[in-house]
Amino acid sequence: MLSRFHSQLLIITISLGVFASVMSTSMLVIAFPDVVRDFGISEATLQWRNLLFYSLFAVGLPFFGILADRFGARKQFLFGMVLFCLAAMMSGLVQNWTGWLFFQSLQAVADSMIVAAQSPLIRASFPKEKLGWAFGWFAAVISTATLTGPALGGLVIEYLHWSAIFWVLGAFGLLALMLAVAFLPKSSEQPADGPQACDGQKVDAGQSAGAARRIPWLSLLSMFAFVLGGSVLLLGTVDAMGQWIVGLLTLLALLGLLWKERRPGSSATLFPREMAKNGVFMTAAVRVFLLFLGVNAIGLYAPTYLRIDHGFPADTVGWIMLTQSLVALVAAGYAGKMADRRPYVSLAAGIGVSVGSSWLFWFADVVFYIPYFYLIFFLIGLGNRLTMPAQNKIALLAVPPAETGSYMGVFQMIQFVTGAFAATLFAGMSFQMLVGIIILCQLAALATVFMKKA
């Protein structure tokens, strides 16, 4: 049994790798105007960095989840941290756009390796009665990255060169690597009583499934081509003829992926064969899509809404939105313990609070009282914090131990791709209509909880 101090040190160690990844995004966004100026490129050209980075990262999650199951999450985490440090430092040294784009793409691969190893490491390191606690504190560390990233990035740009951001990231990466070498358990052995679903039902262990699966290279390439091609089409960065060509290639990539994944007897699949039959996991996956769609939509469009429609200055908007991260940080421990005691109750309570925050946003057009918006983002932060540890625990305990990385890689990919989906779905829509759709999604997610409890 791990001591409280050892448990906290272990979850901090696992979280620090993802901490550096999250902070790199929030720090670098501030530096984009400087990147455009120094490399002599256009903002449209800069979008290729984002296209490649997020496509590689999203597609890599299920792929590296498979590799974590097959070769070991600890090894993958350590290798990912080494690659992250190398890519970050080289991104700070390189003097041309092509080289910088290459090393940023390499960093995306490293980020994907690290994040995909996180769930198997948590499952291997903590008993099931502490998984909610672990996910709660993991989220607290990530909230800290969200809080400190923009401020630290601004300080670096103000007093140094923007490229120094990558040396800061490299330093965080080295710290995470040293802690991981020292404290991550070398064994990935599962608890003797096997995995338990949150309703107490046994889950088929499937111990040989992870080792039996071949590496899905063709599915990986098809998925990457499909995601990248779809992103190019949505952004409209090519002319009419280019859109036809990219559209055709994207369709061929999708057909290739479907053929490879559905071919009878194939073990080289990107998605677990039995995933569609796992009702608890599939319900959790649908639920997390519905919830993260709202979270990402608010994050993308609320700042502009507050500045343009309500005339709030930028610093006021920043402080209002900071409330969400502060609440998430403070409530992490309690939310994790609640997820361990009664995960479905915690999940329902969190979604209920989120619905309340959205209802307040629905009436925001006629309210110009700043504390009203602090209350909204307080509720958003509290709802997210109550929801996510329980949601992650439910999904994790629903899958076979030998395929933890494979399943949770898909689960994490769904969370991240909702950002791109929200950006396109809600573009040009009135904010009130956006909030209305979010409320419907949240109510649908809440219904899945009560369907489970019925």
Automatic annotation (TrEMBL):
Keywords: Cell membrane, Membrane, Transmembrane, Transmembrane helix, Transport
Regions that span the bilayer: 9-31, 51-68, 77-94, 131-152, 164-184, 241-259, 280-302, 317-336, 343-362, 368-386, 407-427, 433-451
UniProt KW Lyase keyword: no
PANTHER family: BLR6921 PROTEIN, MAJOR FACILITATOR SUPERFAMILY MULTIDRUG TRANSPORTER MFSC
Gene3D superfamilies tied to this protein: MFS general substrate transporter like domains (1.20.1250.20), Multidrug resistance protein D (1.20.1720.10)
Boundaries of every Major facilitator superfamily (MFS) profile domain copy: 10-454
Molecular function via GO: transmembrane transporter activity
Localization terms from the record: Cell membrane
Membrane-topology descriptor: Multi-pass membrane protein
Name used for this protein in its record: Major facilitator superfamily (MFS) profile domain-containing protein
InterPro entries: MFS (IPR011701), MFS_dom (IPR020846), MFS_trans_sf (IPR036259)
Alphabetical list of Pfam families matching this protein: MFS_1
GO CC entries: plasma membrane
Native source species: Tumebacillus avium
